[in-house]
User: What shape does this take?
Amino acid sequence: MLESVKIQRRQSEVRERLAVLAGNENPGETETRELDALDTEYRTLEKRLRAALIAEDSERREAGDELEKRDQREWADMLGAFEMRQIAAALDSGKELSGQTAEIIQELRSKGDFRGLPVPWQALEQRAGETVASGTPDPVQTRPIIDRLFPASVAGRMGVQAVTIGQGEVEWPVTTSSVSAGWAASETGSVASPTAYATTDRPLAPDNTLGVQMKITRKTLKQSGSALEAAVRRDMAGAIGAALDQAVFLGSGSSGEPLGLIAGASTYGITETAIDAAASWSAFREAVVRFLTSNAAGSPEAVRLLIRPETWAALDGAYIDTGSGFTEFDHLTRNIPRGNVTMSANALAEPSGSPAAASALLTTNAAGVPPAFVGLWGSVDVVRDPYTDAASGGLRLTGLATVDVTVSRPAQSEVLTGIQ
Assistant: This one.
């Protein structure tokens, strides 16, 4: 029983006794002493009740928070025990799934349609203590497995947010109206006229399917054992991660690809600025100033920069003062933190033209809103091909993932072209 309930019951008993004593117009000495004692006890009970209610309210809040997070925590604990090797064995020989792996697949099947066995995205993440060997898994020579699938990718470092979607389409309404304020010019003058509140929806649609094929030999299936767990996850995560990074920025929007931020800059309304000059901090500084003046960023430290390795080489080789050894790249990182500068040969197109020129991308998070979203539908659908490698007894797996890309606010991104 709660302490507050016990106190309230005692208060009720005290009130009943006080009511009896109060009805006596000529109380004796004993009754007077009892009145004083009950009055003191009642005041003490009031203080104890307030303290008990405060303590119990905190406990209720903690319990409520615990109940709200329990489902997510239990699901995360189950995903930690998901075994990819059971998937390979089930698709290869029809071995029955067991344990938490079977429970997770049953739950995923109840919420979506899959031709093969669904694999949750979280199952492709790195797990503590896992090791794999180069080539065929070998428990003697080991090395760490790769990092998580998406958060450690180029898109993740550029502030792009991955969103897991069960089914259907998801839209983000973004404010596009500009509400202005104005002073009354005179005592009877009017202030600024009202502006209609308008939003633009940025939809994510399940129109793009990414596939990755893995070939597992019969020897690997028989010899590797639990090491196959990390190898399958490594290969699938690496292939999907590289393809997603490229699509987020360079996706053409055709031939099954989503429309990327750089390739679709004009469609999304992202500003494109032609530098057509040698790489320098001043070129990037002007883009940062545009962010600041449009209120997309509060300081240069909030800006993220994506460049090609060749652009870094040009910046690092351009000395502002040969005597001091201070380069354009040093000048850049004095304003934009090194942790916000990402170099990638996969997410940006190769330099072209004469002289060779490349592109760069600047992004920023505004009021906690990421510059772009990547939608990941359901889970990775793993399907078995029983015919291609039948002669050698091998297993061919195809992982299918439905993804899409959209931009939140075009003002949070800018593309620079012609950086020589």
